[in-house]
Amino acid sequence: MNAIEELADSFSRLPGIGKKSAMRISYHLLNEDPAFLSQFARELTTLHQRIKRCSVCGAYTETDPCAICSDLLRDRSLLCVVEQPQDVMTIDASHEFRGLFHVLGGVIAPLEGIGPTQLSIGRLVERVKEGEIKEVIIATNPTVEGDTTALYIQRILAPTGVTVSRLASGLPVGGDLEYADKLTLARSFRGRITY
Amino acid sequence: MNAIEELADSFSRLPGIGKKSAMRISYHLLNEDPAFLSQFARELTTLHQRIKRCSVCGAYTETDPCAICSDLLRDRSLLCVVEQPQDVMTIDASHEFRGLFHVLGGVIAPLEGIGPTQLSIGRLVERVKEGEIKEVIIATNPTVEGDTTALYIQRILAPTGVTVSRLASGLPVGGDLEYADKLTLARSFRGRITY
Fold first, then answer.
1. Residue A144 has pLDDT above 80, yes or no
2. Predicted confidence (pLDDT) per residue in B71-90, tens digit
3. Given pLDDT bands bounded at 50, 70 and 90, which one contains residue B106?
4. Are β-strands A60-61 and A52-53 bridged in parallel, bridged antiparallel, or unpaired?
5. B3 neighbors A45 (Cβ within 8 angstroms)
6. Is the ipTM of this complex over 0.90?
7. Angle between helices A34-50 and B19-30 (to 10 degrees)
8. Are the Cβ atoms of A7 and B44 closer than 8 angstroms?
9. Residue B52 — left, alpha, or beta (φ > 0 → left; ψ -120 to 50 → alpha)?
10. Strand (E) positions, chain B?
11. Which residues, listed in sequence order, are joined to residue B166 by a DSSP beta bridge?
């Protein structure tokens, strides 16, 4: 295996890149500026050193606590609970939510041996008990595991008296009824809004 | 911009990788083994040092002359002329051709200011004049520029008496007539084979 094939092999280990694209990218890099290749390489090797998990919310961050947790202008009475660290960036980029986050680190999945204790649910309860939070918005994915986890959190938070809500699920905006699957359609009926 | 975004930015500079895939890949790499990241980075930084162009045929190689040019079992009477160094690997991987190669380094494209002198055509004529080659198979792409270049090479090699041929072009195997474009269809008519 030569240097081009070795590099292509590494690229094809990445999600969404097949063998052909990997070769195409490697050939492309042969004609790229060596300075770009060095910078790219440096970004790869320093990624793990630079990116940590925030000790408060669990999001990926370079500073601890993260920029969101330490932003005093955000609404500290709202807490959005997500599955993965990358979900924080997705929601924050939408500018729809100006509260704080809490990363569970996964969902309850008994078949994979993941129970509530493997998730950061105990820490979530602690944060709620500190008293500043008025509403917990559960933004786990609309899957069986995401729904189960949401239900579990709703029950475990019930004694604290905090409001617990769940992101609406239904037809995606700009989508077409024709292409909606049965489960999504069923959800959009159950969650319909009366004018 | 944090480390994840910087890395995603580099990935999105590569062909076929959009902003979303680039972010997805970067998050994926956060959960990858740091040893893989170091190896990947090393492959990127050493690429230009390890890969040279073969001084005989112009293909990408780690040794000079390349493995194909120095393989004594190959048919030295056949020479396949291609546009780009990567075309050598594509054709060689098909195992359809066991002769030698010659990389032009492009095609004649007057609009982009590329004439025959910018391509390795003089060197091609020299190689043919050495006398060992019996047939030159032109494998430039079936585009206007590729055809022009093929025609030019055929004319410039005519005085040497060597056989000059061109790869057949027509319907792709496994393709469907319905999806064939007009030009491809026209070619497949002109190049039809009588039983």
1. yes
2. 999 999 999 999 999 999 98
3. very high
4. antiparallel
5. no
6. no
7. 50
8. yes
9. beta
10. 52-53, 60-61, 78-82, 100-103, 135-138, 163-166
11. B138
Of residues A16, A25, A47, nearest to B37 (C-beta): A47
Q: Which of residues 23-42 of A touch B (CB under 8 A)?
A: 23-30, 34, 36-42
Sort out which chain B residues have CB atoms less than 8 A from A47's CB and list them. 3-4, 7, 26, 29-30, 37
Give chain A positions within 8 Å (CB) of B45. Answer: 37-38, 41
Average pLDDT estimate for A137-155: 93
Instruction: Identify whether A159 is preceded by a cis peptide bond (ω within 30 of 0).
Output: no
Task: Return d(Cα A53, Cα B112) in angstroms, integer.
Answer: 51
| Residue located via tokens 């990408």 | B60
* CA end-to-end span of chain A: 65
Q: Look up residue B76 and give its amino acid.
A: R
> Quick check: A43 and B14 CB within 8 A?
no
* Residue A169 contacts residue A142 (beta carbons within 8 Å): yes
Measured between alpha carbons, how far is A34 from B80 in angstroms, rounded to an integer?
Answer: 31
Closest Cα partner for A169 from A124, A138, A195? A138
CB B168 within 8 A of CB B175: no
Lowest mean pLDDT of A57-61, A176-180, B41-45, B152-156, name the range. Answer: A176-180
Q: Quote the DSSP letter at residue A180.
A: -
- Strands B52-53 and B60-61 turn out to be antiparallel
Tokens 């097949």 belong to residue: A18
Beta strands, E only, B5-162: 52-53, 60-61, 78-82, 100-103, 135-138
The rounded distance, in Å, linking the Cα atoms of B44 and B164 is: 39
User: Which domains does chain A possess?
Assistant: 3-50 (1.10.8.420), 52-194 (3.40.1360.10)
CA distance A187 to B6: 38
Q: Does B151 touch chain A (CB under 8 A)?
A: no
pLDDT recorded at residue B188:
81
pLDDT tens digit string along A104-141? 999 999 999 999 999 999 999 999 999 999 999 999 99
